[in-house]
Design goal:
Blueprint: E1 5-9, E2 15-20, H1 30-50, E3 58-63, E4 68-72, H2 85-100, H3 113-121, E5 133-135, E6 147-155, E7 170-175, E8 191-196, E9 204-213, H4 236-243, E10 258-260, E11 270-272, H5 282-367
Antiparallel strand pairs: 1-2, 3-4, 5-6, 6-9, 7-8, 10-11
Family: Belongs to the eukaryotic ribosomal protein eS6 family.
Keywords: Endoplasmic reticulum, ER-Golgi transport, Golgi apparatus, Ribonucleoprotein, Ribosomal protein, Transport
InterPro entries: Longin-like_dom_sf, Ribosomal_eS6, Ribosomal_eS6_arc, Ribosomal_eS6_CS, TRAPPC
Length: 368
């Protein structure tokens, strides 16, 4: 609910206070004003008689498109039940003003800067968005000069404000892992959930703020109190940043220690310090130098072994090549010898055969 205008009327229907908080809001027309003033007392009496409890202090009587009428039976009881918090706070301010002002009567108009100041102090965050800087001088003298930035908030039911949703009410959106206000249980899972828009309205129950600019006075419990961290930094560079040390300075004396009470009575508490990470000492330098030397030695040994192995493989291949060449030469020579032997024996047979033939013919002739 957002309040754009505030009208306070007495039972006679006379307007005793009017304040418009938004210039763009629709103004109350003359007919609506007459209807509001003429029906106030009658509707209030009827609603009081119809109330189930006789001591009811506030009843929502009528609601139209132009206005919403809220009636209060007394001017001394601010304990309203089941009503909007903003109307409750306005009624508390009104009763406080009436009770503490002895010269005020119900028929008189309210002309008091303090009343306006107390009303406006509740509305410095209204219609502001997340990430917007707000001057909070109206909250009180102790906040003079302070500038807050709205980082988030929750409505009355606990739904969180989501950046980028430019509405002053609650909406249902299909949220993913990167949208915010939702933690998926599976990769790529999406779910439709209710979130509050990023524009502040009267239904916001809590706001998360950070101080952008500090004012003149100290805020008790906020800016004048420092809570030391239980554990200090562990990384050497972070310790140097904390104590503004150079690279040549030793950070070990500056590590933040904490005392742990002993479990046995009568003993002194133990002092515990975190292990400094990325600490550069002569031991670490020597160890890293040894590691680099070992890496270089391994590379040299691997290169030497690879060269020896390549040399051995080359020798074996050369031996195999020579053995193959020698075997080829031997095979060629044996084949040549085998071919040469039959070639030498064949002409002898051809020459001897013609010489023997005449002898046979001679013997045959002699026998005859």
């Amino acid at each position: 609910m957002t309040i754009y205008s505030l009208y306070i009327l007495n039972k006679a229907g006379t307007l005793i206070y009017q304040n418009d908080y938004s210039d763009n809001a629709a103004k109350l027309s003359h007919n609506a004003y007459i209807s509001l003033g003429s029906t106030f007392h009658g509707l209030h009496a009827i609603a009081s008689n119809l109330s189930p409890t006789g001591s009811s202090s506030g009843i929502e009587v009528i609601e139209t498109e132009a206005f919403k009428l809220q009636c209060y039976q007394t001017r001394t009881d601010p304990n309203q039940q089941n009503l909007e918090e903003t109307l409750h706070s306005i009624y508390e301010l009104y009763t406080d003003y009436v009770l503490k002002n002895p010269f005020y009567e119900l028929e008189m108009s309210i002309r008091c800067d303090l009343f306006d100041y107390k009303l406006n102090r509740f509305r410095c965050f209204i219609d502001k968005r997340m990430g917007q800087d707000v001057a909070v001088d109206t909250l009180g003298e102790e906040f003079k000069g302070y500038v807050f930035r709205i980082t988030g908030g929750n409505d009355g039911e606990g739904f969180p404000m989501l950046q980028g949703v430019a509405v002053p009410h609650r909406v249902r959106l299909l949220l993913t892992k990167n949208s915010g206000c939702y933690i998926p249980k599976r990769d790529g899972e999406r779910k439709r959930k209710s979130v509050r828009g990023c524009i502040v309205a009267d239904d916001i129950a809590s706001l998360q703020l950070i101080i952008v600019k500090k004012g003149d006075a100290e805020l008790d419990g906020l800016t004048n109190v420092s809570f030391p961290s239980r554990k200090g930094p562990k990384r050497a560079n972070n310790i140097r940043k904390l104590f503004k040390l150079s690279k040549e300075d030793d950070v070990r004396p500056y590590v933040i220690r904490r005392e742990v009470p002993s479990k046995k009575e009568g003993r002194k508490p133990n002092s515990v310090a975190p292990k400094i990470q990325r600490l550069v000492t002569p031991v670490t330098v020597a160890r890293r130098r040894a590691l680099r030397r070992a890496i270089v030695d391994r590379k040299v040994a691997a290169a030497t072994a690879a060269a020896d192995y390549a040399k051995l493989i080359a020798q074996r291949r050369e031996a195999e090549r020579k053995s193959k060449n020698s075997s080829k030469h031997s095979k060629v020579s044996t084949k040549a010898a085998e071919v040469a032997k039959p070639a030498a024996a064949a002409p002898a047979k051809k020459v001897a055969a013609p010489a023997a033939a005449p002898a046979k013919t001679a013997t045959k002739a002699a026998k005859k």
